[in-house]
Amino acid sequence: MIGRLNHVAIVVPDLEAAARTYRDTLGARVSAPVDLPAHGVTTVFVELDNTKIELLHPLGATSPIAKFLAEHPAGGMHHVCYEVDDILAARDRLRASGARVLGDGEPKTGAHGKPVLFLHPKDFLGTLVELEQT
């Protein structure tokens, strides 16, 4: 059901410093920051040959990742994102197997302009999983 690893997301306390580390120290291609108000985050994507790293920073005090950053002030890995061909079919199959889809279960538009869903970390070995329709 799942396809490629689309990205690994890392919450960072300083988005500019994190982007600079990937760009200047590691020599990676780094996107400009993009605010995603619907998700309460600002993102930067680090483009690698085989996947991406998504750097996340809270956008406002009500950001869903603000609590994560408060608990992990240095930042840390937040989620992994896998590609799926049909997000609604994937959702329905996962629900039928007992997995919990976060939120209302309806896909939202993600950072790449494609439908995404998040799956409860307790159902996936303690890891928050994002599915993105390709």
Describe the structure.
- The protein is of the alpha+beta class and 134 residues long.
- It has one domain: 2,3-Dihydroxybiphenyl 1,2-Dioxygenase, domain 1 (Roll), CATH 3.10.180.10.
- It is 20% helix and 36% strand.
- The protein is built from three helices and nine strands, in the order βαββββαβαβββ.
- The protein has helices at 15-25, 66-71, 87-96; strands at 5-11, 29-30, 34-36, 41-47, 52-58, 76-84, 108-109, 115-119, 128-133.
- Strands 1, 2, 3, 4, 5, 6, 7, 8 and 9 form a nine-stranded mixed sheet that branches.
- Strand 4 and strand 5 form a beta hairpin.
- The two termini are 12 Å apart.
- The model has no long low-confidence stretch (mean pLDDT 96).
Q: What is the compact description of this entry?
A:
The protein is of the alpha+beta class and 134 residues long. It has helices at residues 15-25, 66-71, 87-96, and strands at 5-11, 29-30, 34-36, 41-47, 52-58, 76-84, 108-109, 115-119, 128-133. It contains 3 helices and 9 strands, in the order βαββββαβαβββ.
Q: How many beta strands in the DSSP annotation?
A: 9
Helices and strands, in order, run as: EHEEEEHEHEEE
Low-confidence stretches: none
User: What proportion of the residues is helical, as a percent range?
Assistant: 10-25%
State the secondary-structure class.
Answer: alpha+beta
Based on CA atoms alone, the radius of gyration comes out at 15 Å
Describe the biggest sheet? 9 strands, mixed
| Binned strand content | 35-45%
**CATH fold node name:** 2,3-Dihydroxybiphenyl 1,2-Dioxygenase, domain 1
What count of domains describes the coordinates?
1
> In CATH terms, what is the architecture?
Roll
- Straight-line N-to-C gap: 12 Å
Mean of pLDDT: 96
Shape: globular
Output the number of helix runs: 3
**The CATH H-level homologous superfamily:** 2,3-Dihydroxybiphenyl 1,2-Dioxygenase, domain 1
CATH class: Alpha Beta
